[in-house]
Design brief:
7-stranded antiparallel β-sheet, single chain, Jelly Rolls, 4-stranded antiparallel β-sheet, 5 helices, globular, iron ion binding
Length: 257
């Protein structure tokens, strides 16, 4: 599959609305490869230790499975991911959207298992992050399954990337998911077929419903920001949960509710 070149209309849409849908980022054959690798992470065949946590802890009531499985830095455990199509194509598109100086900041897996029905609360990613001087950041959210309203597709609030970050608090317990006040009435739901993705700005409000279906909702996220800002983060001890995925904090005190 050739590299995807965005149109001016797509780039302008992202700048105005804070999100963009890109269809068919990876092929059907590639989807199968990523699903198999993803399932090795979920099953524990690829052991990740403290890099795995339940993002939906205390938000859902599931006892046999994680409410929302989050695995940080999968590429640390399978470095070949960095040379595979998804990371490379997503990086190229992020640079088209926000500048040639963008590099990968981190990657993660977020899965909603069948019938877990646990929401990911409304939030802006920037509230989780260190307050860096250059706010440019783009996250690619790749769906390996049919992401629907019932399985937990992404919702975005158009234009929120151009507004202030709203006050955030912990949704259920300190160290868990963050949340802010927003509603579906403000948002747009984006259903995706397998292999398609969205890009969203670090300040774009987003959320997803729980998975009430019999299928998985496997999402693979890669985040990008200027290389200089990545170095700034690391020099200040911030690595997006590389050592402990469950150690979430409201890093930017400016946005505390």
């Amino acid at each position: 599959m050739d590299n995807i070149r965005l149109t001016k209309q797509q780039i302008d849409f992202f700048a105005t609305n804070g999100y963009l849908v890109v269809e068919n980022l990876i092929s059907s054959e590639e989807i199968d490869l990523y699903k198999a690798l993803y399932d090795d992470f979920l099953s524990g065949k690829i052991a990740v230790g403290a890099s795995r946590s339940d993002l939906g802890e205390n938000l859902g009531t599931n006892e046999k499975v994680e409410n929302i499985t989050q695995i940080m830095w999968p590429s640390d455990f399978r470095p070949e991911l960095l040379e595979m199509s998804y990371h490379k194509r997503a990086l190229e598109i992020s640079r088209q959207l926000m500048g040639d100086d963008l590099d990968m900041d981190f990657d993660m897996l977020i899965n909603k298992s069948p019938f877990t029905n646990t929401i990911t609360p409304w939030h802006q990613d920037e509230a989780y992050w260190l307050n860096v001087p250059d706010k440019r950041a783009a996250s690619c959210w790749l769906s390996l399954d049919h992401a629907t309203l019932d399985s937990g597709c992404m919702w975005f609030v158009p234009g929120s990337n151009l507004q202030d970050v709203r006050p955030h608090t912990f949704a259920a317990k300190k160290g868990g998911a963050l949340m802010c006040i927003a509603s579906e009435e403000e948002g747009v739901a984006v259903e995706l077929k397998p292999g398609s993705c969205t890009f969203h700005h670090g300040r774009t409000l987003h959320y997803s419903r729980g998975n009430s279906t019999a299928g998985q909702r496997r999402a693979f996220i890669v985040n990008f920001r200027p290389g200089e800002m990545i170095r700034y983060e690391r020099e200040n001890g911030f690595d997006h949960g590389r050592q402990n995925a469950g150690d979430r904090q409201l890093k930017n005190d400016e946005f505390a509710g």
